[in-house]
């Protein structure tokens, strides 16, 4: 897969998960365009944090504020 | 949220001219809420011409689509509703993939900006969708209560808010319009593949021309500087030497804006400016080898000075290209920019110093 071979700088993505608040609904996974998140034991977890582009789609669509992303301006 | 929706009512300007749309419309259909225009699913020559103009940066702001409901095929009360942005290119890319389908399209006001950028800027938002759903009486138009939203609008749209205020359930459809047909046939289920953003060779080459043209905007300054520099050196062969040296710079810019995107995954290093510097080293070798051809053979100071300046421009444009990609994060670009600044500063100052040195010795 071509998107696999494209990856950017590691260890900078500004995204935090609060699994305690998570209901496991999967809404965040549905909207993520870069396969960053998975559900593990009914809670949100990282599959590959480095793929995150900080778009904030997951945060916006989490009904329980279990994800916080610092999105860039513009 | 309530205030935001109310504000929409006072802000609405339904005066977008549809004269740019006439060639995209194919009659009307009668519905419970009045006549609705039917969109063609075949693009005509004028559309392709518009797209070409957009790619090359001509009149890019002139492609607003009037908001509201449109029909595709012969939709009825059970037909799905797709929501999209009021940017002509976005709507065109969508409708050309909807051949033989019967559905409704709700065009919302994103100020003529595409889905992804509008979501980031906040104009592709839940409140705008709520407003348009009410204004266009979608609850009268259809029996079901489902809106298919483009997945890339997620950063701007909290789908659960739409449900709260309209009773319509917002569901994120696939990223690419070409997957909509299978998504619908699949019972409104997107596969993992449909949910992933790609940046294929074709996609990369499509952004390249605009990138090149944008980068050439400030080129006249470079040209004038080269001219002045050559003027100080000698008046003999002034024109030809200026043109040939400038040519080396144009190729340098073309390499970062056209070759770098094409070879992106193959180039070493993660940071874009380092990828660009890698290409700069290669290009420097070529320029050095053919320095007679480029008229930069005065002294090794002059040659090195030009090579440093070219590399600095290339490094800067490399980082610049992150803005056109689909997989770079803001924090990543920030980190890269912090590294880029000292490198470019040293390159530019060093390059200029060497060129001046050459004049005075
Ligand atoms: S911010 Fe965007 S890319 Fe990052 S995890 Fe959330 S949805 Fe995925
Ligand atoms: S959207 Fe929120 S609650 Fe739902 S799975 Fe993701 S983090 Fe958990």
TrEMBL record, chain B:
**Which chain regions cross the lipid bilayer?**
212-232, 238-260, 272-291, 303-319, 340-360
The protein's matches in InterPro entries, at most eight in alphabetical order, are given as: Ac-CoA_synth_d_su_TIM-brl
Q: Which Gene3D superfamilies match?
A: 3.40.50.11600
Q: Which residues form the CO dehydrogenase/acetyl-CoA synthase delta subunit TIM barrel domain?
A: 52-181
Keyword annotations for this protein?
Membrane, Transmembrane, Transmembrane helix
- Pfam families assigned to the protein according to its UniProt record, in alphabetical order: CdhD
Source domain of life is Bacteria
The entry's protein name is Acetyl-CoA synthase subunit gamma
């Amino acid at each position: 897969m071509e998107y696999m071979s494209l990856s950017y700088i590691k260890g900078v993505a500004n995204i935090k998960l609060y699994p305690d608040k998570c209901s496991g609904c999967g809404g965040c996974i549905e909207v993520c365009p870069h396969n960053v998140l998975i559900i593990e034991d009914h809670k949100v977890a990282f599959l590959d944090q480095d793929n995150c582009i900080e778009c904030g789609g997951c945060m916006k669509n989490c009904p329980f504020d279990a994800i916080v992303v610092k999105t860039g301006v513009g | 949220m309530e205030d935001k929706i109310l504000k929409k009512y006072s802000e609405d300007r339904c005066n977008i001219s549809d004269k740019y749309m006439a060639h995209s419309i194919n009659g009307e259909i009668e519905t419970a809420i009045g006549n609705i225009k039917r969109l063609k699913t075949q693009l005509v020559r004028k559309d392709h011409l518009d797209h070409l103009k957009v790619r090359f940066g001509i009149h890019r702001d002139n492609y607003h689509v009037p908001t509201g409901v449109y029909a595709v095929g012969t939709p009825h009360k059970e037909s799905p509703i797709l929501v999209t942005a009021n940017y002509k290119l976005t709507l065109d890319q969508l409708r050309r993939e909807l051949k033989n389908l019967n559905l409704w399209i709700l065009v919302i006001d994103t100020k003529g900006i595409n889905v992804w950028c509008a979501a980031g800027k906040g104009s592709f938002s839940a409140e705008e969708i709520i407003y348009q759903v009410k204004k266009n009486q979608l609850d009268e138009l259809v029996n079901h209560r489902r809106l298919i939203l483009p997945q890339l609008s997620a950063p701007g749209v909290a789908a659960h808010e739409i449900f709260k205020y309209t009773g319509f359930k917002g569901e994120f459809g696939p990223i690419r319009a070409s997957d909509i047909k299978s998504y619908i046939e699949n019972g409104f289920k997107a596969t993992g593949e449909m949910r992933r953003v790609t940046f294929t060779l074709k996609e990369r080459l499509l952004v390249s021309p605009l990138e090149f043209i944008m980068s050439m905007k400030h080129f006249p300054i470079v040209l004038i500087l080269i001219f002045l520099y050559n003027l100080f050196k000698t008046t003999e062969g002034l024109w030809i030497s200026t043109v040939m040296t400038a040519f080396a710079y144009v190729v340098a810019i073309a390499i970062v804006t056209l070759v770098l995107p094409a070879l992106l995954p193959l180039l070493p290093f993660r940071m874009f400016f380092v990828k660009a510097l890698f290409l700069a080293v290669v290009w420097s070798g070529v320029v050095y080898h053919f320095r007679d051809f480029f008229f930069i053979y005065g002294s090794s100071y002059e040659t090195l000075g030009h090579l440093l300046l070219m590399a600095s421009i290339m490094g800067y444009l490399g980082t610049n290209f992150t803005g056109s990609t689909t997989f770079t994060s803001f924090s990543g670009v920030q980190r890269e920019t912090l590294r880029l600044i000292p490198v470019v500063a040293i390159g530019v100052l060093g390059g200029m110093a060497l060129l001046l040195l050459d004049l005075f010795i």
